[in-house]
Amino acid sequence: xxxxxxxxxxxxxxxxxxxxxxxxxxxxxxxxxxxxxxxxxxxxxxxxxxxxxxxxxxxxxxxxxxxxxxxxxxxxxxxxxxxxxxxxxxxxxxxxxxxxxxxxxxxxxxxxxxxxxxxxxxxxxxxxxxxxxxxxxxxxxxxxxxxxxxxxxxxxxxxxxxxxxxxxxxxxxxxxxxxxxxxxxxxxxxxxxxxxxxxxxxxxxxxxxxxxxxxxxxxxxxxxxxxxxxxxxxxxxxxxxxxxxxxxxxxxxxxxxxxxxxxxxxxxxxxxxxxxxxxxxxxxxxxxxxxxxxxxxxxxxxxxxxxxxxxxxxxxxxxxxxxxxxxxxxxxxxxxxxxxxxxxxxxxxxxxxxxxxxxxxxxxxxxxxxxxxxxxxxxxxxxxxxxxxxxxxxxxxxxxxxxxxxxxxxxxxxxxxxxxxxxxxxx
Amino acid sequence: xxxxxxxxxxxxxxxxxxxxxxxxxxxxxxxxxxxxxxxxxxxxxxxxxxxxxxxxxxxxxxxxxxxxxxxxxxxxxxxxxxxxxxxxxxxxxxxxxxxxxxxxxxxxxxxxxxxxxxxxxxxxxxxxxxxxxxxxxxxxxxxxxxxxxxxxxxxxxxxxxxxxxxxxxxxxxxxxxxxxxxxxxxxxxxxxxxxxxxxxxxxxxxxxxxxxxxxxxxxxxxxxxxxxxxxxxxxxxxxxxxxxxxxxxxxxxxxxxxxxxxxxxxxxxxxxxxxxxxxxxxxxxxxxxxxxxxxxxxxxxxxxxxxxxxx
Lengths: 427, 311
What we know:
The complex is a heterodimer. By secondary structure, chain A is α/β, with parallel strands linked by helices. Chain A contains 13 helices and 19 strands.
């Protein structure tokens, strides 16, 4: 069965840009032809992408799908569905499930559940240390065989420098990507929002910027020492960005991500004690927000990843300091990131690089819209206006600070292996 | 004139006019407490719940007496007597209380913002009796009432607040309230106890306690919590007393006729010497008396909904 995506504008930086039709057969890309040039058989299924952007499927390197263990917040199925609805064809699921994904059995379980769900691809990220304890190293080789694409103790830092060093060295032997949650806990000291004027006003204990950047600097140094590649999760401060910029100049093998909330909001969003604006690292100041935007433009920050962190009202409708960290991201990332293009921060090509091409290359994947590759494709209407209603999201949870926002731009169709896994309702 | 909001959550949400109204009303209330029969029927049939999720004796007693002098029915509920120890969430507690139709809920809680959460869930008026490090509006109101009583006016006075500003809801509320009423506020304390951006809250920051007291009309001492020592905020009570405690020598730097305040309970010999606490400059017990009056005024304005003149 032949499917043709026609009349769209292809944005696949480094590969193909402009008006092309994409032919798909048996889940793979068969041909990429200039618009209207080649005539295709009359019985082909036609997807009319008139007025739409056709991009290699978006990839989110950082999500929490909560299964196994906290299925009341999200399941692999609802999370993968939310991903597809947000235009993502693949997501990396962090290991802080219950039990922790520190064994090939849990990794295999996640792979199996994702396959049965059949929406976006789910790539498990396994733990660096058993039970996220910061202690003994997991079996990276076995985990990789079971399907893990990276290791991370996300949610917690690996506090001990020697263990992080050994983890990076050991992971190198298996070609395993190390993703670091950078946080110096002794400086967090019970803080629950950004340390700044807003926290002082609100009487909440603050988390200083350097609790992040100090650990970023340590891990950059360890990457330099070990020669391992380091990927830094959820960068939020200008100090971390400065450290990354310098490291890249020196030629250190390091990449980094930030989340849409860090370039969209500041700690002002916490006013009124809104627990849906509570996450870790916390929303920072305008200075940091601007630094994040600049770093996305100049490539110091390589990718946009959501840190999608579903929580139910049990964790969020409580006193601010007791509320759990995290917000949803999968269904808001694309519109919030498209705003960067409208604001002139990124070009559309850069946006696709940050949300699709670079995440793929960090994972060692080639997702070019090229003959023979899997047909993982996202169709985007960059101008569609819609209102976000938290309770109507595909995610099982509703913890987003963007409830009621007017959004511009969305994924209208998401294909994985040539199969449509999400199609937006009209309007 | 009436109060705009149904709740008293912090001083920030009160205008200078509203604060003036509350203080004027409180001055009338003060007289009730001096009568042989200290009770008026004004709030008969009104229900006031005192929901104290954090230990408190003096504030709770003050609210309780204020309610009873207004003939309201006051009911105390503490953390240990509430179902929150059984794992009930604050939201569920709020809805449960609401279902009993109280008119006012006075709430103290260790989490900043907890009264704000409560106020959104209930129709009753919520009075914040202190939330975490955030706000203690009734303390600030009784402090302003005391300054006005002793010095005639707040406007133009210089107020020094000395101690652990970072962890003090009293300091936050007073900086806001006093500057709003036209006073100038200067703070001092060990740099470990000064919060981020304090200079942008509308107050000056003095380099030392001595510098803060210089030319002050009001010296407000904050309680030093000894457990803060474990968090490395200061090294010893002795050194704290030497550098930041109020004693006669230090007080001599203040203006003539300056008053000394303390929200209590005091650590004698640490932030305040006994000579100062018991001396003629001390208005600490007047603060306690005024606390009852200020709280009666709030109950009156919230549950009566009228200002004193229209009675």
